[in-house]
Amino acid sequence: MQLFGHPRQGASHDIPARVDEFVKRTEGILGSAEVVIREHTLVPFYLPLRREIDAEQAISAIRAGGLGGIKARLGILASGFGAANPLKACMVCVKVDGLDRGVSSWHLDHQWPGAWICLLHDAVLQYGLGKVNAEGRFHWYLPQDIAFAEASKTPIDGSAMQVLRKLTACACGLGRLPQGFHFDQTTLAQTYQSRMIDLGLASPSGRLRSARFAEALASICEPLSRLHGMEILAGVASGDTGAFSRLMQERRSTPHPLKHLIFVTLLFESWQAFTSSYQQELGNAPFVKDETNTGKATVLEDQDHSRSQSVAEDVRQGMSVTRAAEAAGVSVATAIVWSAAAGVPLSRRPKKLTPRVRAQAVASLKRGHDKGVVASLVGVSIQTITFLLRSEPGLRSAWNAARLARARKAARTAWTRAARRFHSPMQQVLRQREPAAFAWLYRNDRQWLQQFTVETLLKPRPTNNAHIDWNERDRVLSASIEIEARNLVQTKGRRLKLSDLCNAVPQLKALFSKIRKLPLTRAAVASALSHRS
Ligand SMILES: [Zn+2]
């Protein structure tokens, strides 16, 4: 496979490998390695539920090396959902694409694990038979070239459709989260638990109400278990809820994202409802005073409130935290957090944090660096940094403010820079180019975004050749590629490389960055490169 510089590695459609090599060989026309991974693979689906540091390791492994171990590291192999993600397509989309552009293409939102509906046409997706067996696995196909099978062997009724729609929307939501977003596992578990208490699936103290929970879970898993690749859920549908109740507990190993999505589908009205509950939970981390709004203290249960006060008071009077914790019957960590929330400074007995290292870490956090960055910078674990953030009065809000400022600057810069690249930029185009920046600005900096749109995007500019007929271009270019490819195969006597085509058809090189607008050209290139002499 010439694009990846290796006969087999790389070309897997779901989790690729050797992406750096791919970017080098395509001269970056599809974007940097990060962009290729983010916009053209299923990798973004697996990262938000991993820790930041695991995600970074996975990305660099995908950029550099072979596939070995990556699927295991992302938790795909052990999931029970099968390691091969089938290629999926909406038959209406295939037809419409064919009529519109002459060829059909794969839609990323159809490929996420758990996505089984085309949200545009409300049609159940079918899965491709050509690619999933071992023999066809490393060939490239377009939807028009392969045979499809029905997702479910039995008919899908109205209530099952509803489950599928919701799960699909959740899968797209997870796959399309802003780059670099990672769920905090503790907050996530709290989000689930609060909602389960609200729904009566758990008692007010958080104890699982097994019978009700099993019943609710079965109602979701029964229709899902009839889908291709989801058969493992048949067990859950008949009452094995263990795998799911374990999700509520904070654990080191992260389950397959699909299990989370099924849980979200079960508990929440929609993906949006889930993410806003999560945000709320994140803002209301228990026992930590909200320092940005002095006076608006987080609500504690009465009993905990008085206990936390007495712990803080004991420590203020000079009692050791360990003894204060013992007296109140809570863990030492809780006592430290309570004291910090009450603004009582602690005399610390650092384990790995010497005063110098500590000062370094605090300074770095105040500049808004990520926990993982700070941890590796000063050489301690991420848990230590997390603990530092919780135990140093005022540090978390300073850190949050600095991170907000950094994120804002990054998003605004990305957006402005993208706009400058176009002669007459349009918001839709910029959105496609910078989805993460757009998502961030839309959510957090909307006023600036609107102002930018009014002042920069909508301002009329002098135009020349603004109207380009892409269809005509596509027809001309694809035709000349077909002709040149035939000549080249005869003269070279070997399989063609992309560079052969670019040299023979200079316009191809010039327009390669626009290849998404040129479906016929793309098909002509694919066919020319796969043709044996
Ligand atoms: Zn469709």
TrEMBL record:
Residues 170-524 form the Transposon Tn7 transposition protein TnsD C-terminal domain. Pfam families: TnsD. It comes from the Bacteria. This is Transposon Tn7 transposition protein TnsD C-terminal domain-containing protein. It comes from Ramlibacter tataouinensis.
